[in-house]
Amino acid sequence: MNPSAALAEYSHTVLPLLKNYCYGCHGDGSSEGGVQLDAFPSNAAVLADQQLWDKVLRNVRAGVMPPNGESRPSEEEVQQLAAWIKAGPFAIDPKNIDPGRVTIHRLNRVEYQNTIKALLGVDFNAEIEFPPDAAGMGLDNIADLLTVSPLVFEKYLDAAEATLEGAYPKRPIESLVIPGRDIRGDNDSSGDFVSFDDPPEITYTYRNKTPGAYRVVLAIEVVGLTDGEKEQLSEILALQEKKRSEIADTEKKLTEGEGAKEVGAKENDRPTTGRTEEKPPGDVAAEPPRGRRGGRGRQAGGGGNVEPKKPVTEAHFVVSVKSGNKDEEILVDRVFSSESDQFEFAFEQLWSVEPHKFNFNVIMPGDGQPQPRRRNSGRGPSAKPMPTPHMVVKSLTITPQPTAAGKRYFPLDAPPADREQRRQYIRRGIAEFGLRAFRRPLDEPTLNRLADEIDKSYQVSEDFYESIKPAMAKVLCSPRFLFRASYPLAGQEGLAWGLIDEYSLASRLSYFLWSSMPDDELLELAREGQLRANLKAQVARMMADDRFDAFVENFSGQWLQTRNVQDWTIVESAVLAREGIRSRTPVLTNGVRRAMQQEATMYFADVFKKNKSLLDFIDSDYTFLNAELAEYYGIPGVVGTEMSLVALPEGSPRGGVITAGSTLLVTSTTNRTSPVKRGVFVLDNFLGMRPHDPPPNVPSVEASGSEITDHEPTFREMLELHRQDPACASCHALMDPIGLALDGFNALGKYRESEFNQPIDASGQLASGEEFNGVDDLKAILRGPRRRDFYRCLTTKLMTYALGRGLDYHDTETVDQIVERLEQEDGRAFVLLMGIIESSPFQMRRINSASTNSAAGAN
């Protein structure tokens, strides 16, 4: 809309609306809140104040202006006002939307770590090695805040050296051999002799100096097993040979990030739970003594009347490896028999620089029960015990290996001897590495320079893997690796904005959905110019990939604040005392905290992966629980330690993430609930209306409560007194009713009905006028008349995450279009993702702009 038409529309349509609904407080000499709508010095000024009109649009749409009780515009009038603001002051053409300002995005810690893993197959712990990323708008991937200080750049230099050392260990490779006698058990038993009667758990901890791939070889000897039936033994040995073959095949095709898990699965050939699920041929009936129990990866000793049903021909020896502080372990299970008593078996795993603990355990026949001490077949006093079956750990050998991802670029240990063939080999390797590192092909001058450097270095050192590291380090320290820059598609010169090229699109897509670099399929489609044509199919593929978990964890962890659950400080006794409960036994255990965190994360993943309605985030008839969290919530009938989807009983106050334990916990103080924090959480994350920070020198809510002396005041009573201060009233009118609706849950996230012997009052009225009596009513309002506000809020949050920048008035039409699509398609999660990915801000960039892409030519 041109300015003349916009001013004409203002006079004809907008000005009468303002006079009718707004001038009572913001015109005719009034300027409540510092807003005056009739004080424009000129006609041009009417269109020039985008910030003012943005505020007007937000407040009118949210229903907070005009205030409740005043005459309000109809829905049609609100739409007329919104259309004029977008076309006039915002100057938005809905068919040619300005994509907004250009941002150059440094990889944050998570993105860097994931990219290094995908690129070189090395586990680099960026959380430890790099300083924390600055956060803004509740997110840690905002480009404007991801600056590079001299300290950070030094860290990048060190990281490049460490990760390349992990991908290509120095030659000759030195193996660490630990004799069995140096491996001690938990009862100080040496690895030289591990009895099967009462097997200890033997542990050896190894700390590697560099991240990378390591091959672990265990040499084991088993003594004292009886002969068994030949037919059974041949089946065992055949299975072992099959496993060895599968392991060998697996080791040849190890892929980045999959190696250890795949080898472990092949070796184990059953679920890696740490317990035997199959009974070997020699069943034994035994009763474990009281006070002893089996544990993860370890079975207890036992005694009693033992009656062998068949000759015992085998035992299981289990090795589990726990890397550093990570939860995941790999499990190697070897079957020993009387005719195969010496073994060497191996696996590969990618390790970061931290302790790695090996646990050696004997899993006995008979569903994990111990084997009895046996006697010879003689009778009478001359009968003597046969040798106790035992196991000897002969050695543990740890050898660094080039990672599978590293070998992808340079698969030969030494390059071809012919110089021209060697040069072509180097060019192919560094070109592929550069393509994946820079997320686009290397330009010819850079390729030639890097290849020449490697070739010259090799001629001097004759150690090929050492020769490639300096050139590869330059790639890892280049702005083209460390920053995500978007380049315009060729042939759009002279345009104000245009499409980004397909390599840039592949990069935006992968860092949005995977927090990592594009994979081969995305890069190949970009090379062919076919990514846009296959966008929907690629998004579906990426959501089905395990790497989509990074999106789930990173966005939901910040949006729903689940990152804070484990470390949130709470004084349980003070919280429970408000309900008249005296308890010394902790209820908010580490297990409950973990389950709370998983509940919200799994809930988020379920909505997106199953394309459910986004409204399920507000309320649903299901959640994710295990037995411990279900008991904590007071929900019967849930068993087991694994988290799973559970249908909620009729009338349950749970469902959705607003009443999830994690949300209720992190929106409380250390000793009580906080209706203010809870109200702000819902306003900010579900309605898009974060209040301003409180003015200085305002007394605390507790200080207001000191006026009540005849009884212990509830927080509702304190807030009512606090709101009497005019400086506090307007913001608390937004926050408090929502927060008090959640007051039926204490600071631990447990349901309650009273505080200080007074019944909980969870009734209230939103600033937009809707009344409610409890959290169920509030959820119904958010899912019903205020669902557009929620769609708009979540779209804004997720688009901010996708773009790495805050949204402004240029983005209003884009968000509105996505909200309309969500309205038409029941708020489906895939509609939101595709709406963002297909939008102008995601697909395009400004071309002729003062904000230029300074990283474009960097090396």
What does this entry look like structurally?
- Strand 20 and strand 21 form a beta hairpin.
- The longest helix has 23 residues.
- The two termini are 44 Å apart.
- Helix content is 42%, strand content 13%.
- The C terminus is likely disordered.
- Among the domains are: 85 residues, no CATH class; 226 residues, no CATH class; 235 residues, no CATH class.
- Strands 2, 4, 6, 11 and 13 form a five-stranded antiparallel sheet that branches. Strands 3-5-12-9-10 form a five-stranded antiparallel sheet. Strands 1-14 form a two-stranded antiparallel sheet.
- The chain is built from 33 helices and 22 strands.
- It is of the alpha+beta class.
- Helix 30 crosses helix 31 and helix 31 packs antiparallel against helix 32.
Head-to-tail CA distance between termini: 44 Å
- The total of beta strands comes to 22
| Strand fraction | 5-15%
**Annotation field: number of helices:** 33
Residue-averaged pLDDT, rounded? 80
Largest sheet: 5 strands, antiparallel
Strand and helix layout:
Layout: H1 3-21, H2 23-26, H3 43-48, H4 50-62, H5 75-87, E1 105-106, H6 109-120, H7 126-129, H8 150-167, E2 176-179, E3 184-185, E4 194-195, E5 202-207, E6 212-223, H9 230-252, H10 259-268, E7 284-287, E8 303-308, E9 314-323, E10 329-337, E11 342-351, E12 355-363, H11 365-368, E13 390-401, H12 404-409, H13 419-438, H14 444-461, H15 464-476, H16 479-482, E14 483-484, E15 497-499, H17 502-513, H18 520-528, H19 535-544, H20 549-559, H21 572-577, H22 590-609, E16 622-625, H23 627-633, E17 644-647, H24 661-666, H25 675-687, H26 701-705, H27 715-722, H28 726-741, E18 754-755, E19 758-759, E20 763-765, E21 771-773, H29 775-783, H30 787-803, H31 812-824, H32 829-837, H33 840-843, E22 844-846
Antiparallel strand pairs: 1-14, 2-13, 3-5, 4-13, 5-12, 6-11, 6-13, 7-8, 9-10, 9-12, 15-22, 16-17, 18-19, 20-21
Helix pairs in contact: 1-5, 4-5, 8-15, 9-10, 13-14, 14-15, 17-18, 20-22, 25-28, 25-30, 30-31, 30-32, 31-32
